[in-house]
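Bumping my old thread because nobody answered last time. Still need a sequence for this structure:
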């Protein structure tokens, strides 16, 4: 840390993570656990993305958005886990100020984009079940591509605002983060300057970036549930529900963890609980998404079988809206 020109404050040039500071033993084991999680995340999401690109049966709006989700989850995990792995190899878990701000920017970009993308996927399921005859028109490439692009731009805009506000914070020499990566709540906790604007921006983002997409998903599924209940055939009803169950599971896990991670009172922070919630939100969830959403999906299994040469046939038996 160096002095500010013309002042007696000190400028933070690096941050120290305290998330695993109490663990003197077992660091090698945790390194292997995080490495395994990261590799599973990369392999699972890369496999889903590749299958969607290779198999024409999966060239539908639902899988178009899923390919973006897989790419996003790879980015999400890559923002945090490699730095955690590097820190496990050192006695002091540190990150430079510049790297911290960069990590914060990409982390918030992924968070905002995933909220919007999950809402777009809910709209896709709503159209497929509630307006099946107009599905090809309402979910054409002229609609899907702008929706996906807008999701990424929305995340970037939200992240740029939070990162710009974070760079204006003063830390007065305090550089110990009660966390395992750079995020807004732990940075606000150690800042010595006024954090009112940052906190208001965080609460507004919780509403516009988190709550509104979540409510959109809930309303979409209320309409979907009503449409499914009107189906007389049990087989058709189960088939319709199965196309939504995985996405709904991802939504519940992701938004649930996001709410807990970003909307707890600052006085209630516990280092152990904070570390656990952050791991579930930013590290474990990207690993679970391909399992929850895709690996139990018959179309994806069929595409994998064709790629591996274990199954032949066209799209007729595999493709769905």
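Sorry it took so long. Here it is:
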């Amino acid at each position: 840390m160096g002095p500010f020109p013309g002042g007696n404050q000190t400028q933070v040039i690096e941050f120290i993570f305290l998330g695993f500071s109490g663990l003197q033993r077992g660091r090698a084991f945790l390194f292997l656990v995080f490495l395994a999680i990261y590799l599973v995340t990369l392999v699972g999401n890369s496999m889903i993305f590749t299958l969607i690109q290779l198999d024409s049966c999966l060239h539908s709006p639902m899988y178009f958005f899923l390919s973006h989700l897989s790419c996003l989850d790879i980015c999400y995990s890559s923002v945090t886990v490699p730095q955690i792995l590097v820190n496990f190899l050192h006695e002091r878990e540190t990150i430079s100020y510049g790297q911290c701000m960069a990590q914060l920017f990409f982390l918030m970009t992924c968070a905002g984009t995933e909220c919007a993308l999950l809402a777009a996927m809910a709209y896709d399921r709503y159209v497929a079940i509630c307006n099946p005859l107009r599905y090809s028109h309402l979910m054409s490439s002229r609609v899907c591509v702008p929706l996906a692009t807008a999701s990424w731009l929305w995340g970037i805009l939200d992240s740029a605002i939070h990162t710009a506000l974070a760079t204006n914070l003063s830390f007065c020499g305090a550089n110990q983060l009660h966390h395992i990566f750079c995020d807004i709540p732990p940075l606000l906790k150690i800042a010595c300057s006024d954090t009112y604007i940052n906190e208001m921006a965080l609460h507004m983002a919780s509403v516009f970036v988190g709550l509104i997409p979540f409510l959109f998903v809930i309303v979409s599924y209320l309409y979907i549930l009503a449409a499914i209940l009107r189906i007389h055939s049990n087989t058709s009803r189960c088939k319709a529900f199965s196309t939504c169950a995985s996405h709904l599971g991802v939504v519940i896990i992701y938004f649930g963890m996001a709410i807990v991670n970003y909307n707890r009172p600052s006085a209630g922070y516990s280092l152990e609980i904070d570390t656990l919630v952050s791991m579930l939100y930013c590290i474990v969830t990207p690993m679970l998404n391909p399992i929850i959403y895709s690996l139990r999906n018959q179309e994806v299994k069929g595409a994998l079988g064709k790629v591996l040469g274990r199954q032949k046939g066209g799209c007729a038996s595999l493709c769905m809206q």
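The radius of gyration is 22 Å. Let me know if any region looks off to you.
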